[in-house]
Amino acid sequence: MIISCNLKPKKSGLFAEFEAKTKLETQQKIFFPYDTGSYAFIYDKEKLKNPPKSLKELVERQDLKVIYQDPRTSSVGRGFLMWVNQVYGDEAPTAWKTLAKHTVTVGKGWSETYGAFLKGESDLVLSYTTSPLYHKWHENTDKYVAAPFEEGHLVQVENAAIVKSSQQKALANQFLEFLHKPESQHIISYHNVMNPVLTDGVDPAFAAMPTYKTIEFTPPTTETIQKWLADWSKSW
Fold first, then answer.
1. Is 71 helix (H, G, I), strand (E, B) or coil?
2. Of the candidates 56, 57, 14, which has an alpha carbon nearest to the alpha carbon of residue 165?
3. Residue 176 is part of which domain span?
4. What is the CATH number of the domain that holds 21?
5. What's this model's pTM, rounded to 2 decimal places?
6. What does 69-124 look like in DSSP terms, one character per residue?
7. pLDDT in tens, 139-171
8. CA pair distance 2, 209, nearest whole angstrom
9. In total, how many domains does the chain have?
């Protein structure tokens, strides 16, 4: 199941339906997807010889030093909040307390947390299954790996949208169509190091990546998310 962090804005009434043409099948006409990424924990295979094989193992193993992002300030952290609650259900508050015992830090955003991991401050860091591609492209190394989890991985979709107040809706729709052109998908997927939504013309490295199981997911209400955040905050 693919999730998006745009659940609340979708109901806001601020956005217009797009009219842009695309080869991609979409179930709605508000948000126009341009890339996707599956959440995963990254590790250095030269340092960590026995990585966790499931989210529950990651949470329960006290020998692992973990870094992830704050779900109040980071979309990646918010995705992790949903992931944990999907796997643990009513036991999520207990899981957060267990994880907190071997969490090095919870950072405000992806850049600082990933940077801390690269400095050797943790064994694993929350990121995306595509993150190892960056190191292959720019550092010519394959030592960084996204750990596949038995429960499956949540998928984040990044979208563009047109505000209802726009005076240039025709131009905006042209831009959305531009985002799905092969050259655009190549640039976006390469620089964001995220999966393209259309595969024409993109780097073949994406197709060569390992396959990661996707977890089934039911989008929560705003009230449910607030409760999950409160439960997470109490774990510290």
1. coil
2. 14
3. 2-234
4. 3.40.190.10
5. 0.92
6. E-TTT-HHHHHHHHHHHHHHGGGHHHHHHHHHTTEEEEESSHHHHHHHHHTTS-SE
7. 999 999 999 999 999 999 999 999 999 999 999
8. 19
9. 1
